[in-house]
UniProtKB/TrEMBL annotation:
Coiled-coil annotated residue ranges, if any: none
Lineage per the UniProt record: Eukaryota, Fungi, Dikarya, Ascomycota, Pezizomycotina
The Peptidase M20 dimerisation domain, residue ranges: 201-292
Source taxon at top rank: Eukaryota
Record's protein name: Peptidase M20 domain-containing protein 2
Molecular functions (GO terms): dipeptidase activity
PANTHER family (alphabetical): PEPTIDASE M20 (PTHR30575), PEPTIDASE M20 DOMAIN-CONTAINING PROTEIN 2 (PTHR30575:SF4)
Region (Disordered): 1-22
Pfam families documented for this protein: M20_dimer
UniProt cross-references to Gene3D superfamilies, sorted A to Z: 3.30.70.360, Zn peptidases
Family: Belongs to the peptidase M20A family.
InterPro entries xrefs: Amidohydrolase, Bact_exopeptidase_dim_dom, Peptidase_M20/M20A_hydrolases, Peptidase_M20_dimer, Xaa-Arg_dipeptidase
NCBIfam families reported for this sequence: amidohydrolases
Amino acid sequence: MTSTSPDFGEEESYVMVGPGAEDPTDVPDYLTAIGSEVDNLSADLRTISLEIHDHPELQYKEYHAHKVLTEYLAQQPGWIVTPSAYGIGTAFVAVYEDGRQGPVVSFNAEYDALAGIGHACGHNLIAVMSVAGALATAKIMAEEGIAGKVVLFGTPAEGGGGKIKLLNAGAYKDNNVDISLLAHPGIGPDAALVRTAAYFAFKVEYFGKEAHAAARPWDGINALDALITAYNSIAVLRQQTQPGDIIQGMITNGGLRPNIIHAYSAGRFVVRSSSRARVEALKKRVFACFEAGATATGAELKLTPGGSYDDHMPNQALGRSYRHFFNRLGGEIARGDIDVLRSVTSASTDQGNISYAMPSLQPNCWIRSEDQDGKQLGGPHTPDFEKGARAEEAHGLAMRVAKGLAATAVDVLTRPELLAEAKRDFEEMKRVDEESRCSA
């Protein structure tokens, strides 16, 4: 651990909240104590991480992970744990507070796995990063007499919108959450201001009319032709979409036999873009392609919405705080204007919806996915990454991130001006989003 803070330049100083902003050297610093507490927790959390990793469970079926996490948290002094919270069997809410009014900081713990490749998204690490961050924050609050509240949400089914279900059920509102923190492992460089893509999934069906494909094809309406026409139209559309716009699809039903005019066809499609406003604009153009298939063939079109995630909008104020502490721990996160550019990803997460409900931060935690010669292996959602997420080194890196998250949480709890700035950033983000959506 290093105690030397890098030189961010004048525009990237630790806190910029206008005239009279406190210099960080004048603010009580709890990073050393936080680091000690996370180190004390590390061995237990390594065991928990391996328990989750070695018993992969799919979305909303994370019974073992739920049991391991809630039982451990229930043993921690001062914590009140609610298993199977808000009617979701594998969700939980753990709360620490001493009764004094103050800000409410929250952490989200993920623990679902992927079909066939287990914890290839590293959710075992996400779980223990959030647990470590929450417990260390509470420990400092107790030792230093800091007012406020810490809430740790057990959020199942990141791949199935678990956080959105909790959000819609009122979990965050009921606890008066001010900020939300979460970190995700990957093979990209450590980053604070990670921004993810928005996406919208949907099912497409065409209903036509059967006929003999050789004897009387003119009696039929070819539903497969409608889908192929739409598919080809989308291929043409891709030439004129904006950078960051992604259209993905598959045909799930192409008919019964080649000698029948196909009365039914179906497919599943996804559109992604850099913001939810851009997704709305892209949806209109993509839906027009499917309508063209119906118009060209006479088939009836049915579009059924599936899941959707908002893009994750990182909070700039929280990002500055996290970067300051993480770099003091030996990290090398670039200054904000560079960080926000190089940490953009086309992947999507339900934490994006949280970022539109409250100030949110989801830093990237680099872990090794390389062979013994340093050759880059697969990233998230690959067997290579599943192995990397189990490594001792990955756990150590995750604990460093947990220290940075806890330090950011304590920073919010102890400096009202930081929380005020985070909320101003959040309101400005919402204003820009609303303008974009109105013009989409």
